Amino acid sequence: MITLYDLAITDDVRPSPFCWRTKFALAHKGLAWKEEPVGFTDKDKIAFSDQKLVPVIVDHAHADKEVHDSWDIALYLDKTYPDRPLFKSEQEQAFARFTSHWTGLVVHAGIFPLIVDDLYARVRPQDRDYFRESRAKRFGTDDFEAVQATARETRLAAFRQSLEPLRQQLKAGPFLGGATPAYADYTAAGAFLWAHGASPFALLDTGDSVISWRDRVIDFYGFGQRAVAAT
Amino acid sequence: MITLYDLAITDDVRPSPFCWRTKFALAHKGLAWKEEPVGFTDKDKIAFSDQKLVPVIVDHAHADKEVHDSWDIALYLDKTYPDRPLFKSEQEQAFARFTSHWTGLVVHAGIFPLIVDDLYARVRPQDRDYFRESRAKRFGTDDFEAVQATARETRLAAFRQSLEPLRQQLKAGPFLGGATPAYADYTAAGAFLWAHGASPFALLDTGDSVISWRDRVIDFYGFGQRAVAAT
Question: Is the pTM of this model over 0.90?
């Protein structure tokens, strides 16, 4: 059994895109896990990891080994549990890294201003000060309502356009990895699950192939109920 | 022996990024080829392929089999010559496709307005009308000097920023594919060879890790002399 320390905005809203990567990696490998919710100001729960970011896992089958950072967790899981590998070659690992970088730089960065005020509205009362101060540093203001409204007015078209590599890729198969989902799918789908779980805003046009792909990835491991429950 | 029909701006300037993909694929597989230059208005030379775009290859060892489109050529080469595979798995192929899409949408689209007038200045006299008319359709004007000057003034910083996924990837190894170059490297390097071969403009800051990577890819198969000769 593995314990996953998972970011909780409220107890049943667990939108962290990096934690989603780990949930997908665990599901891909057929490993069982239980989740421990961690609010923004509950970081004492993961103090044993000597850093402050989730996801963190503890592998009870291996002397309670602690691993943090979604990428290091993926590598640890493949090394420790060789069945159902996430990566079968150096190039497959390179594919996962490239799509992770692209997702962070393009998809996360594009989504964040579009939903920041909705995220803020959902944060637990005891975490609101932390969220406001830490996120204000990124935007240069704590007026998240204005940031979000401006982004929706001025940046939505460019954000949707920036997803074109996904749409082109999906013309060749149901998943970014081809016939079955790969870590590239988990990385990119995690970004949309983050938004989906924390904001009712329609990031994408109805009929966008990115929506049907996202839902295929969610459903592949039966995450559908959770993703819906979170909205 | 394979004949590669290669876009020639002048006889010794052969900058097509799609033809570079094929040259790298042939070099990767250790196959010998000879090149047949094709100017913009020499398309009768490839009329046998029933379409108008290079690269086209003719494989003389296999009944003069004709294959066009750089992606279809890569798949053909792997199928016909299984040694030194470009792709060892579906995910490796997916990696190549994703980086090809990204390169086209981000790198080619970013570079083109920045060098269009330099390209135009190098086109053979008999091809200038073709180039002007076909490219004017993309820009909505044939004043390429203005397009290029405006792009250099207003779009250069965003273009350089858009390459950040390359830089992040290169922190983990010398090539996008890891320790050795993969099709992802050929795709992306082809875009920079296109610019390098057709324009003296400094697309990148001195010291950018993308420059040293580009040069590593060029040198890996001894293309250094050609790339330099073309400038």
Answer: yes
Q: What is the dihedral of CA A151, A152, A158, A164, to 10 degrees?
A: 120
Counting one residue from chain A and one from chain B, the pairs whose CB atoms sit within 8 A come to 86
- B176–A contact, CB cutoff 8 A: yes
> Between β-strands B56-59 and B2-7, what pairing exists: parallel, antiparallel or unpaired?
antiparallel
Q: What is the Cα–Cα distance from A211 to A202, expressed in whole angstroms?
A: 10
The span from the CA of B10 to the CA of B63, in Å, is: 31
Task: Give backbone dihedrals phi and psi of A144, rounded to 5 degrees, phi first.
Answer: -70, -30
Fold entry, domain B90-229 = Glutathione S-transferase Yfyf (Class Pi); Chain A, domain 2 (1.20.1050)
B101 contacts A168 by C-beta, under 8 angstroms: yes
Is 50 exceeded by the pLDDT of residue A229? no
- B98–A101 CB contact, under 8 Å: no
Find, among B101, B11, B20, B26, the residue nearest to B54 by Cα. B20
**Cis peptide, bond prior to residue B174, ω within 30 of zero:** no
ipTM above 0.85, yes or no: yes
B-chain residues near A172 (CB < 8 A) = 94, 97
List the single residue in B88, B94, B182 with the smallest CB-CB distance to A178.
B94
Contact yes or no for A130/A40 (Cβ under 8 A):
yes
- Each residue of B40-82: pLDDT tens digit? 999 999 999 999 999 999 999 999 999 999 999 999 999 999 9
- Break chain B into its structural domains and give their ranges: 2-80, 90-229
In chain A, what residues touch B95 (CB-CB under 8 Å)? 91-92, 94-95, 98
Superfamily grouping for domain B2-80: Glutaredoxin (3.40.30.10)
Of A92, A105, A172, the CB nearest to B89: A92
